[in-house]
Amino acid sequence: MPANKLELHDITRTYDGAVVVDGLSLTLAPGEVTCLLGPSGCGKSTTLRIAAGVDRQTSGSVLIDGHVVSDETGHMPPELRKIGLMFQDFALFPHLDVERNVGFGLHGSRADKKARVVDLLHKVELEGYAHKYPHQLSGGEQQRVALARALAPKPQVMLMDEPFSGLDDRLRDDVRDATLELLKAENTAVLMVTHEPEEAMRMADRIALMRNGKIVQAGAPYNMYNAPVDRQAAGFFSDINVIEGTVTNALTETPFGQFLTPGMVDGTQVEIIIRPQHLKLDFDRNGRGPNPTVSDGVPARGKVKRARYLGHQSLVEFTMDYDRSILMVLVPGVFLPNVDTAMWLSMRRDRCFLFKK
Ligand code: ADP
Ligand code: MG
Question: For position 37, which CATH number holds?
């Protein structure tokens, strides 16, 4: 029986005294894609290697289907764990054709093996490639063969480390979507490592955001984006504007009026975060801006410092009259106002995140 549940309990890994994974716990559910997301060097691959069994934690335990497969007392090797692995540098066997690469780990009758291989090649859209050799395939085709090979034994747990990073942008989207469809169809529990927030947002049912060896926040992509736990978590998913302030009488003054900061003692340094796409622009009418609304708060005036066209949107930077601070605004489509144009910025307060500094 293939494994279908994987748990990491309080995993710590040190290399030469340096803590690389730090008390990390994670459970994979069947049919769910979890993305381990974080900057380079935060310990993602190490975590995955420990889950696979190719590396061993310094402390903590790994469980498969409720049974301990690795702890201080013992360690089951990867080949006995019945989980699928797909790493960045997936290696196909160069001397075997596609059919034999995909069927490599399969047992059973020749007819059964053949049927499974045919089914998988169909799913990864490589019918007709069965008798080609790896060197006759493009990068994307090789990657899909590797995926088919990893899925051939029907693993219920699949570990993937940046599996799409070797593909160019357009191809990557196609291969990602095909992969996701396949994994869902097989109800596989997936742990996928990536350092790209867009990829995690696109693929994941659940994102586990990692920093310095720890999971700092986990949740559905929507929640990760709209309810970040701190400034860095907010900033990992998009550019952000940071407005700094100091609490006085439970209020913080900003270019956009006062923010309530209840329960914070006077003198507390706070940061108000707003994503550039959540600021609204209005033209200046002889020094007057739009009428403030309750949800948009007080508008603030700024002058265009720079405007750039990014394709499907434009990025406009403003120098704020209030304190000469710089704020970025993303506007859909083409919007390229001249430098020094005065405009009014408003922000939806329900789109702001307020953190203690
Ligand atoms: P990520 O996948 O998030 O980029 P890694 O898990 O590969 O990060 O690495 C995390 C840290 O652990 C890095 O600082 C890396 O240099 C260190 N590290 C990883 N593997 C080893 C090793 N075998 N020996 C020593 N240090 C290692
Ligand atoms: Mg890595």
Answer: 3.40.50.300
| Placement of tokens 């996701």 in the chain | 180
- Cα torsion 349, 351, 356, 357: sign: negative
- Judged on CB neighbours under 10 Å (0-12, 13-18, 19+), 28 is buried
Closest among 218, 21, 51, 81 to 61, alpha carbons compared = 51
**3 pLDDT tier (thresholds 50, 70, 90):** low
Residue numbers of the domain that contains 329: 239-356
| Shortest-distance atom of ligand 1 to CA 13 | 12
Q: Residue 299 is part of a domain; what is its CATH number?
A: 2.40.50.140
For ligand 1, is residue 28 a contact (CB within 6 Å)? no
Does ligand 1 have an atom closer than 6 angstroms to the CB of 213? no
Do 220 and 246 share a domain, yes or no?
no
Q: Are residues 256 and 116 in the same domain?
A: no
Q: Check pocket membership of 15 for ligand 1, CB cut-off 6 A.
A: yes
Q: What is the CA(116)–ligand 2 centre distance, in A?
A: 31
Q: What is the pLDDT of residues 146-183, one digit of tens each?
A: 988 988 888 889 999 998 887 777 778 888 888 888 88
Question: 282 to each of 291, 302, 333, how far by Cα in Å?
Answer: 10, 11, 16
pLDDT band, residue 2 (cuts 50/70/90): low
13 alpha carbon – ligand 2 mean position (Å): 15
pLDDT at 1: 58
pTM, entire model: 0.89
Contacts for 134 with CB less than 8 Å, ≥ 6 apart: 92, 93, 94, 98, 101, 142, 145
CA of 41 to the centre of ligand 1 (A): 6
Contacts of 128 by beta carbon, 8 Å cutoff, 6+ apart: none
Q: Whose CA is nearest to atom 5 of ligand 1?
A: 43
